[in-house]
Amino acid sequence: MQTLVAYVENKPGVLNRVSSLARRLNVNIDSLTVGPTENPEIARMTIVAHTDEKGGHRLEASLEKLVDVLLAENITERALLERDLALIKVLADQQSRPHLMELIKVFRARVVDVAPESLIIEVSGTVDKIDGLLEVLKPFGVLEMARSGRISMTRGGDLLRPPVASSATEQSAAAR
Amino acid sequence: MKLTGAEILCESLTQLGVQHIFGYPGGAILPVYDALGKSKLHHILVRHEQGATHMADGYARASGGVGVAMATSGPGATNMVTGIATAMLDSSPVVCITGQVSSKLLGSDAFQEIDITGITMPITKHNVVVSRAEDIARTVREAFIIANTGRPGPVLVDITKDAQQASCEFDWDASVPKLPAKRVRNNHDQAEFDRAIELLNTAKRPVILAGRGIMLSGAMRAFEQFVRTCNIPVAMTLLGIGCFPASDPMNLGMMGMHGEAWVNHAIQESDLLIAVGMRFDDRVTGDLRTYAKGARKIHIEIDRAEINKNVKVDAALIGDARETLEKLTPHISNPDRGAWLSHIKELKGDSAVRDIQSLPDNGHLYAAHVINDLWKETRGEAIVVTDVGQHQMWEAQYYHHNQPRTLVTSGGLGTMGFALPAAIGAKFAKPDSEVWVVVGDGGFQMTMCELATIVQEKINIKIAIINNGFLGMVRQWQEFFYDKRYVATPLVAPDFAALANAFGIRGERITQRGDVLSAIRSARESSETVLIDFRVEQEDSVYPMVPAGASLHEMIRRPSNPLVETATEP
User: Fold this and answer.
1) Residue A73 sits in the same domain as residue A88
2) Which of chain A's residues have a Cβ under 8 Å away from the Cβ of B181?
3) Are A65 and A6 in the same domain?
4) Nearest-CA distance A150 → chain B (Å)
5) Is B126 in Cβ contact with A20 (below 8 Å)?
6) Are B192 and B315 in contact (CB under 8 A)?
7) What CATH number matches the domain at B2-174, 1.10.150.20, 3.40.50.970, 3.40.309.10, 3.20.20.150?
8) CATH assignment at residue A120
9) ipTM above 0.85, yes or no
10) For the domain B190-349, what is the CATH code?
11) What are the tens digits of pLDDT across the range A104-147?
12) Do A61 and A96 share a domain, yes or no?
């Protein structure tokens, strides 16, 4: 599994280009998240792909060849923080509710919606943590689940910033 | 100054130095054609949009500049797909301009509406839809930059009809490209550079692998300097042919599936490969597990995605070939390569006696004879545009190119039907050069409608059809690997000479070896296009051949008497 971060132009069709590239390279995407950055013209993607180190390099280099991809970096081997978020709707009657509340506490999850027959639990953390909670919730009856997919960031001073726009656009183009 | 989008497009193309546009009109591009009529741009009316893209491609390959193709929406655009993919696989800078239905109709399945940017996404370097007249000039400028910088490739610009019709203020100087601010990677890795120098200066049996990247970066002189300094023999990829003179004693010739045996053996026995502007295509390496096993590898390549893609390399020098070679050469010593070079000479001697050219003339006409005679007669100075198949390989083996951009051929995609339209493009790029089409009877029938384009444009090219009545390369595979079951490879063709006449072109048929030279001479003397139908041996094969998936040294060699089946002993 390889984790890549990409800064891309925040405009229509870019996600299509990125996913189309993965398809062309015969790489299965495990998770792909995209959202705007503090600069609304630039979006940040976290791509988790089913491939080996060689495939990760190829994906990184090929992504950066796309005109709309400003930067792509394979951060698999770096010290990084990874987060996934899930909303889990689970059956909860009078009897099971106290047990559920205990589990939620242990997993540092929280209840964000309460209905007579069910709860929605919000949990964030690593994929393993969410998978773990899901496992223990299954016996209660999981009705629905939505997961955000992973977002990743390298730790500490290891910064991954989008490149700064320069006035000499033609020069930067010539360099690619 | 207020102009319509269509006028802005024509004005922008003119500003960018475009002189020729290969295209075909239709509803969604009509405003542009109306504006074209008032411009100084020379529009060449093709007979099929695939031809337009191949012409633009041939123009780009022969000139080094950007070729421009134009078509309408829907079927006009989809007909371009094969030509765009051909340009993509061979890194050819082509800009395709397509008309699109009006922006308010987008997504409504309007007449001749198709999502051409969606279709061409994986086969273009970049593509874009323009739906505002204000964006046309800037987008076209960007398209030209993208197409012809870094590793070149095709760019498609899809312009909606309302954008062509709308008027807006046109200011060329203000329409500056606004390409995304991409990271500029520092490719100068001193450790890799030092390792490359170390490898170069200690290698005992090195071989240089020269690819098209040398031509694309204009590195011919730097490359020659590099070869002289390090005194290392050079093997060529198909698309690299011409970047280093064939007449140079250090040039071994083409490598790979139909490379000469000595070239492939030299590669397999080498202890260092220096790959310059090539991408270790499977047709070049054969089985990767056994490819040059004893060799360390240096890869000089502009595209980072090519590094370690097929072959794991020991030193990767990412960047422009010319800059990299100029930086590398001063650090290289000139060791004595006597033993290695004379060993290669021995390998060559063994193969040369099997060469078809060494056999006496027994009256039979072989494709190799035709191409060899063409080479001799044109002194190797013509631009030769080939199609795909046996004749293409024979051309690479028997026509010896000394100048860059004189062989135009579809390598990566292997597109049959490429030759005739690409040659038309090459002729417009180099009107003073002699242009020869070398094409099979199969490929010629795919795009022969462009003969009418030749006549309408009154251009002068020479067409040599290598006619063996088969889809020859496929037949050869059937002979070798499918027990001679010739399924769907024998093909009927029209009388090509008569067909040429019907188009108003002089046509001839040649069946005897003795008539080849005079036919070529007579065609060269004509100031008009001439087509020669060379009826060659039907079941001749290209040797040597590395079967697909086999090791590079496991070649099917030329039979000691290749003509034994059809020839009589002299």
Assistant:
1) no
2) 70, 163-166, 169, 172
3) yes
4) 24
5) no
6) yes
7) 3.40.50.970
8) 3.30.70.1150
9) yes
10) 3.40.50.1220
11) 999 999 999 999 999 999 999 999 999 999 999 999 999 999 99
12) no
CA angle B512, B448, B476 (to 5 degrees): 55
* More confident of the two residues B184 and B18: B18
User: Best mutation site among B141, B144, B158, B183 for testing chain A: the one with the most A CBs within 10 Å?
Assistant: B183
What Å distances lie between residue B45 and B22, B24, B304, B558, CA to CA? Answer: 6, 6, 39, 44
Same domain, A52 and A115: no
Q: Which residues of B touch A70 (CB under 8 A)?
A: 180-183
- Whole-Å CA distances, B322 to B219, B462, B489, B541: 4, 34, 44, 38
- Please tell me which of the candidates B146, B178, B305 has its beta carbon nearest to residue A61: B305
For chain A, say whether B308 makes contact (Cβ under 8 Å).
Answer: yes
How many CB atoms sit inside 10 A of residue A111's CB?
Answer: 15
For chain A, how many structural domains are there in total?
Answer: 2
Provide the residue range defining the domain that includes A123.
82-151
Q: Do B308 and A169 touch (CB under 8 A)?
A: no
Catalytic residues of B: 49, 111-112, 161, 473
Q: pTM for the whole thing? A: 0.94
By Cβ distance, the residue of A13, A20, A175 closest to B184 is A175
Here the tokens at position B43 are 């529009």
Whether B121 has its CB under 8 Å from any CB of chain A: the answer is yes
Mean pLDDT for B286-297 is 96
What is the residue extent of each domain of chain B? 2-174, 190-349, 358-535
Integer Cα distance of B17 and B43 in angstroms: 14
Is some CB atom of chain A closer than 8 A to the CB atom of B188? no
Angle CA B304–B278–B545, to nearest 5: 140
Q: Quick one: tokens of B413?
A: 């995609």
pLDDT digits (tens, 9 = 90+) for B444-457: 999 999 999 999 99
**B358-535: CATH, from 3.30.2350.10, 2.60.40.4070, 3.90.980.10, 3.40.50.970:** 3.40.50.970
